[in-house]
Every structure is written in C-alpha cells, then in structure tokens.
Amino acid sequence: MSKLVEHREKQNLTQEELSKKSGISVRTIQRVESGIDPKGFTLKALAKALNIDETNLIKQKPLITESGQKWVKIINLSSLVVVFIPVLNFAFPLIIALSKKQLNALTKQIITIQILWTLIWLTIFLIGNVINLGELGRDIGIAFMVILVLANAFIILRNSAELNKNTQLFFSLNFSII
Known about the structure:
Helix 5 (about 65-80) packs antiparallel against helix 6 and helix 6 packs antiparallel against helix 7 (about 105-130). The chain is elongated. By secondary structure, the protein is mostly helical. It has helices at about 5-10, 15-20, 25-35, 40-50, 65-80, 90-100, 105-130, 135-165.
C-alpha cells in the first residue's frame, strides 16, 4: 500500500475528494497510489491537502541493496574477530569493504566507529604508559582497556542485531572519517 493511500484513508477521503481538495487530477492520484513517487507541484499540493509533511509521501530508499546487506553484516562482524587488536579492528573490515566494493554509507560508519575506538584506546594506552601511577595505576589501566574492548564488542553486536532487524546501525555517527 502506498503512503498516499494510508494518509488518504486515515482522513477518510476518497480519491475524488482528495482531487478536489488538492487540485490534482484523480488520474494523477491513482498513479501516485500505484507506487509512483509524486514530485514538484503534485507532492506539495497533496501534502498540503492532507496537512502532512512532504517526506511522508515519498518512499524511503533502502540504504543498501539486498545483496549488499550480507556484506555489511560480514564487515560489521569482522571487527569482532579482531576486537582486541587495535588497528586491525578497522583495517580488517576496510579491506573486506574495498575488496568486495561495499564501501557505502553503512560500512563507512562501521569503519569510522572502529577508527574512533582505536584512537581512544591508543590514547588511553599511551597516557597510561606516560603517567606512571605504580602497580595500582597499571591494574586500573588494564581493567579500563578490558572494559573498552568489551564495550566495543557490545557496539559491534548491537549494530549487528539492528542490521538484521532494520538494515541500519544502532550506534552511528553524524560524520564519516573515510
């Protein structure tokens, strides 16, 4: 069912009533309801007549193709294999993404998250080695490193679950390093 049909039926309007209210022909409304995305004036007029945002009438295109979903999941989980080895946790997925030509918005996000995690991990590791806090400080540093590795494993697994459910990432960033 198209989004236009949903919104039209929610408001208990017939195609003819929507046509009169929007100034769009019944035939155009039928085309849109058959699956053609409205554009320009038609989109604005229908959205205004239904008192909804224009984006509510346009189909959302999936971020990845069905065949690419498999590779995105593999690229995400490949970080888990080397989660305890900084640099490899983003290099391994990057190599897979490049070799399989799957460097899309989702895989860039996955790799960016791993790059940031590696930078945080290395920064804390270097600070811990520069600041000598004795035996207790070393133990706290090791415990913190283990917590960071477990947190990264959680991020990878949570994103994997969300990819299976909604083909999107649970943890994502508003930017990409790659």
